[in-house]
Design goal:
Helices cover about 30% and strands about 25% of the residues. The chain is an alpha/beta fold and about 425 residues long. It folds into 2 domains: about 10-75 and about 110-185 and about 285-420, FAD/NAD(P)-binding domain, CATH 3.50.50.60; about 190-280, D-Amino Acid Oxidase, Chain A, domain 2 (2-Layer Sandwich), CATH 3.30.9. Strands 7-2-1-11-20-19-22 form a 7-stranded mixed β-sheet. Strands 5-4-14-15-16-13-17 form a 7-stranded mixed β-sheet. The structure holds flavin-adenine dinucleotide (FAD). Flavin-adenine dinucleotide (FAD) binds near residues 16 and 168.
């Protein structure tokens, strides 16, 4: 099918989070395309998701961000550590023990600053980023997405047309919701409550920037993410019924739960809580399809996985880059049908499935990483690679064969790697 319309640009991107700005930077700078990003907020704005994992480095380096992040003075993160339900800390896992690549030092970022830097980078690359512009709907003609209808902060609505739209709207997941494509993960049905503390106890030296995961017996876990300026992001993830059992006052719930892990209690009691308490549900989902004619999904707008291993920003950056490569190829071949994105969806889903299996193992009472590597030393390296985010185009079959002897692992989900498609040419 040929589509003959006049376009405002080559690619419209909805949302200027890490997925959207990565895609925008690559498409504008590397591929020389005309890109418009529409972001409903004015930056800087608060966003959860501060802890990066080592393999974020690869995409950040591709788009010229690593030196800038080092120069900005974000808290350096060199390890992850686990605390058992009795409050005992296990030996930290240092990334440098696994690799001497620069990615062994990653960052704990205040997202308001990180996202702003990413937005500025996209602008510098040549993308036009419009803040305070909310996308309201999609322009769909004969089942082909032709662009969006949006509203600026003064209430003026307008239409914007492009042969390809990338939905990077995060957990708002505009297209996924509109088409009722959201499929929740059957087991990973948790909620999170979180806040910020100032002056909490910090571990010294190389451990200062460690992400800590502290278990609450049979219920869930806390995160402790040390940021710059003596601030800590702290949150709990557990079943909704458990957390809401005595009411829905987030502060009361948080203060009650802190007492369930000695390490958390001891660290936070030295500090002072400030700002809001936040809550998030719908903890793990994936869209039925990764694309349709004229549109592709990236970042949380495509899939969201329980963040116990801090995989979210990595997946946003990676799908942003992979999605951008697929869009550039589609435009070059003058075929922007959903079919063009099937390979993208398959690669991404395969990568996510490895991490999803690890998340399932984490929630399995019979599982511990230590048991696996003690018994099967040959998979230690693969386990670490997987945990630090080396997810795309790897084969971890042997690892999960061994992990599966300790924990019940899920089958791969069929959806997400699929597209809704016909033949569409991007002739203008
Ligand atoms: C409780 C919790 C803890 C987490 N912890 C971590 C962590 O420690 N480490 C980690 O890596 N990840 C973590 N994550 C995940 C991480 O926050 C996300 O995976 C990541 O931000 C996804 O990036 P994105 O670009 O896809 O979406 P976002 O960062 O959400 O960006 C989407 C953008 O789209 C904009 N937008 C939305 N709707 C519209 C619209 N209609 N029009 C225009 N713009 C729109 C939004 O304003 C936003 O700026 C956590 C998530 C949760 C819920």
């Amino acid at each position: 099918m040929n589509v003959n319309v006049s376009y405002d640009c080559d690619v419209i991107i909805i949302g200027a989070g890490p997925a959207g700005t990565t895609a925008a930077t690559i498409l504008a700078e590397e591929k020389g395309l005309k890109v418009i990003v529409l972001e409903k907020e004015f930056f800087p704005r608060y966003h959860v998701g501060e802890s990066l994992i080592p393999h974020c480095w690869d995409t950040l380096d591709r788009i010229g961000m690593t030196e800038r992040l080092n120069a900005k003075g974000f808290q350096c993160k060199q390890s992850v550590q686990f605390v058992n339900p009795d409050g005992e800390l296990s030996a930290p896992f240092y990334f440098s023990q696994h690799t001497d690549h620069p990615r062994a030092k990653t960052w704990q970022v205040e997202r308001e600053e990180f996202d702003q830097m990413m937005m500025e980078r996209a602008r510098e690359a040549g993308a036009e980023v419009r803040e305070g512009v909310k996308v309201l709907d999609f322009l769909e003609e004969d089942g082909i997405i032709q662009g969006v209808r949006a509203q600026d902060h003064e209430g003026v609505t307008f239409e914007l047309r492009a042969p390809v739209t990338m939905d990077a709207s995060g957990r708002d997941a505009l297209f996924q919701r509109k088409k009722k494509w959201r499929k929740r993960d059957p087991k990973l049905n948790k909620i999170a409550i979180w806040t910020l503390y100032r002056g909490a106890k910090r571990d010294p030296g190389i451990d200062e920037g460690a992400t800590t995961v502290a278990y609450v017996k049979e219920k869930g876990w806390f995160w402790n993410i040390p940021l710059r300026d003596d601030i800590v992001s702290t949150g709990i993830v557990a079943e909704r019924d458990y957390l809401y059992r005595d009411g829905r006052d987030l502060k009361e719930i948080y203060e009650r739960e802190i007492k369930n892990n000695k390490w958390v209690e001891e660290h936070l009691s030295e500090g002072e809580q400030f700002g809001e308490y936040w809550v998030a549900g719908e903890y793990s989902y994936r869209a039925e399809n990764c694309a349709t004619d004229g549109l592709v999904l990236i970042g949380d707008a495509f899939a969201f996985l329980d963040p116990v291993f801090s995989s979210g920003v990595y997946l946003a950056l990676t799908t942003g880059a992979m999605g951008a490569d697929a869009v550039a190829k589609a435009l070059e071949e003058n075929d922007v049908s959903g079919e063009q994105f099937r390979h993208y969806g398959e690669r991404v889903c395969r990568g996510i499935e490895w991490m999803r299996k690890l998340v399932y193992a984490f929630y399995d009472d019979d599982f511990s990483f230590k048991d696996v590597v003690m018994k099967y030393a040959e998979v230690r390296r693969d386990l670490t690679d997987c945990l630090i985010g080396d997810l795309m185009d790897r084969d971890y079959t042997e690892l999960f064969d061994r992990v599966g002897r300790f924990a019940k692992l899920p089958d791969d989900l069929a959806h997400g790697r699929t597209v809704q498609s016909r033949q569409v040419q991007s002739v203008s």
